[in-house]
Amino acid sequence: MSIKLNSAAVTFAKELIRDGKIKNDEGHWGEHNPDSAEENNYLDKHDMAEYARWHLGEDPGKGEDTKGRYRFPYGDFKTVHRDGLIAAKERAAQQGYGDIEKAADELLHALEKKAAK
Predict the structure, then answer these.
(1) Residues facing residue 4 across a β-bridge
(2) Is the separation of the CB atoms in 80 and 54 below 8 Å?
């Protein structure tokens, strides 16, 4: 089944960017992307809906209470990362998810605009 845009995540990311909760990092997303242990630690303190807000894509074919349902992470559960948005945009483009690619691009421009202030 196709991955769909998680509009709640886009709205949440816009709020974080507006509030200045950003990292305008130049590194590689692999250096900042939370690993499985960090994800599990987050889920120990938060529900799945909060976890989902950190992912631009959602796979309706996966169970609602599984981490595997949520794709295209863009932050570290505290801030939106520039390199996370770039990675999400590039992967979405490679995999043919134009709506996710477009959302990541718009968020990336908003982050860069906020960082420039």
Answers:
(1) 58
(2) no
CA–CA separation, 87 vs 79, rounded Å?
Answer: 15
CA–CA gap between residue 84 and residue 67 (Å, rounded): 18
Residue 84 is classified by DSSP as H
The residues that bridge with 23 in the sheet, in sequence order, are 81
Residue in 95, 52, 96, 49 with CA at minimum distance from that of residue 74? 52
pLDDT at 1 over 60: no
Q: Which residues contact 62 (CB under 8 A, 6 or more apart)?
A: 68, 69
Which of helix, strand or coil describes residue 81?
Answer: strand
pLDDT at 38: 96
Render pLDDT for 15-55 as a digit per residue (tens, 0 to 9).
999 999 999 877 788 788 899 999 999 999 999 999 999 99
> How would you list the strands of the sheet with 55-58, edge to edge?
4-5, 55-58, 70-73
How far apart, in whole angstroms, are the C-alpha atoms of residue 5 and residue 103?
8
